[in-house]
Amino acid sequence: MPRYMLIMRGTDESNAAMMASIDEAMAATGRFIEDMMKAGVLLAAEGLDDPARGVVVDFGGETPVVTDGPYGETRELFGGYFLIEVATQWEAVEWATRVPAVRGSKIEVRRVAEADEVPPGSRA
C-alpha cells in the first residue's frame, strides 16, 4: 500500500498563533494521532525543533555554505510530518484535511517513492 507524508508547513504568524494556544494544539494533535492509530494508517509522526536552532547547508555555489537559523527570507517552514499508509492519494488528502492546523498553515501531501521507482544504476 502506498505511503504518504503529510508535511506541516507554517509561517512565523501561524507558528506564533499555535504557540499562543500550545496546550490546546497539543491536545488536538494527540486526538488526531489516536484517530490515525485506531484506523491503522499511522506509521510515524514527528515535530521539528525551533528553526532558530537549525542549520542550512546550501549547495548553490562551488562549495557548500553553512548558515545558522533563523531564516528571515523563508516564507514557509517545514514544521513536522505524519507518515501514513493508505490506499489512495485521496485518502491521504482526507487525513490531511483533518490535521488540527491553525489558520495560515498548510499541509503538503506527498507520496513516498518506493525503492523500485529509483532509476537503475542510481541505487547505493
Describe the structure.
The chain has 124 residues and is an alpha+beta fold. It is 29% helix and 30% strand. The chain contains three helices and six strands; from the N terminus they run βααββββαβ. The protein is flat, with a radius of gyration of 17 Å. 12% of the residues are buried.
Which helices and strands, and how do they pair?
Elements: E1 3-10, H1 12-20, H2 22-39, E2 42-47, E3 55-58, E4 65-68, E5 77-85, H3 89-97, E6 106-111
Antiparallel strand pairs: 1-5, 1-6, 2-5, 3-4
Instruction: Point out poorly predicted stretches.
Output: none
> Which percent range fits the helix content?
25-40%
What's the order of the H and E elements? EHHEEEEHE
Biggest sheet, open or closed, and with what strands and sense?
4 strands, antiparallel
Instruction: Sum up the overall morphology in one term.
Output: flat
Mean pLDDT: 88
Question: What's the count of strands?
Answer: 6
The radius of gyration computed from the alpha-carbon positions, rounded to a whole number of angstroms, is 17 Å
State the strand order across the main sheet. 2-5-1-6
Count, helices = 3
Counting helices, strands and paired strands, the structural category is: alpha+beta
In whole angstroms, the N-to-C terminal distance is: 24 Å
Beta-strand portion reads 25-35%
Please give a quick description of this structure.
The protein is an alpha+beta fold and 124 residues long.
Task: List its traits.
124 residues; alpha+beta; 4-stranded antiparallel β-sheet; 30% strand; flat
